[in-house]
């Protein structure tokens, strides 16, 4: 039996702690306090727990690595810039950054564009892009299953079939 205030594994506040670390890490990241943000994201990953938190923490760890390689801390990677635009709610800008030479064959950009379209409630285009992202890298199926950006599509049978199809 799980007591009140404990996670499903019996550890106190596991999900709450991971969410707090993730949120704190994101805030630190956008304050350009990259080393501190990295530590928070690493805590989330090390703690395991809810996979959606771990997936998002890993995404931000990759962003931290790119930011640390950049001389001035500003994004020098179009993908990172697109992710930051999406996270800042600049959805049109994020979409523009996902377009461009060769980006329609890069699963990262295609997946991100699918996320943005889902957030814009353009489900038809989001589903087309997500299908392509899964074709480019089947791991995107699992990411989409856990990604809150697609919550508006949870009732769409085509989305459900796509994220649950394990034939590849």
Biggest sheet layout = none
Mean pLDDT: 84
Q: What helical percentage do the residues reach? A: 55-70%
Number of strands: 0
- Measured by DSSP, the beta-strand proportion falls in under 5%
Radius of gyration: 17 Å
Helix/strand-derived category reads mainly alpha
What count of helical segments does DSSP give? 9
Report the principal-axis shape. Answer: globular
Distance N terminus to C terminus?
38 Å
Order of helices and strands: HHHHHHHHH
| Low-pLDDT residue intervals, each spanning 5 or more residues | 1-13
Describe the structure using short key phrases.
single chain; 168 residues; mainly alpha; disordered N terminus
Summarize the structure in words:
The structure is a single chain. The chain has 168 residues and is an all-alpha fold. It is built from 9 helices and no strands. It has helices at 14-30, 34-47, 51-69, 78-87, 91-98, 107-119, 123-136, 139-146, 157-164. Helix 2 (34-47) packs antiparallel against helix 3 (51-69) and helix 8 packs across helix 9. The chain is globular and about 40 Å long. It starts with 13 loop residues before the first helix and ends with a helix. Mean pLDDT is 84; it is low at 1-13.
């Amino acid at each position: 039996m799980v007591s009140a205030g404990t996670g499903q594994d019996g550890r106190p506040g596991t999900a709450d702690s991971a969410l707090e670390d993730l949120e704190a890490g994101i805030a630190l990241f956008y304050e350009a306090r990259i080393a501190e943000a990295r530590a928070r994201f690493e805590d989330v990953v090390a703690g395991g727990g809810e996979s959606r938190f771990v997936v998002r923490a890993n995404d931000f760890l990759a962003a931290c690595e790119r930011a640390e390689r950049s001389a001035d801390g500003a994004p020098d990677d179009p993908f990172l810039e697109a992710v930051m635009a999406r996270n800042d709610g600049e959805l049109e800008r994020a979409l523009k950054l996902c377009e461009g030479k060769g980006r329609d064959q890069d699963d990262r950009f295609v997946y991100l564009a699918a996320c943005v379209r889902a957030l814009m409630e353009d489900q038809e285009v989001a589903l087309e892009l997500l299908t392509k992202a899964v074709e480019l890298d089947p791991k995107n199926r699992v990411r989409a299953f856990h990604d809150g950006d697609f919550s508006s599509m949870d009732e769409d049978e085509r989305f459900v079939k796509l994220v649950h199809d394990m034939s590849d």
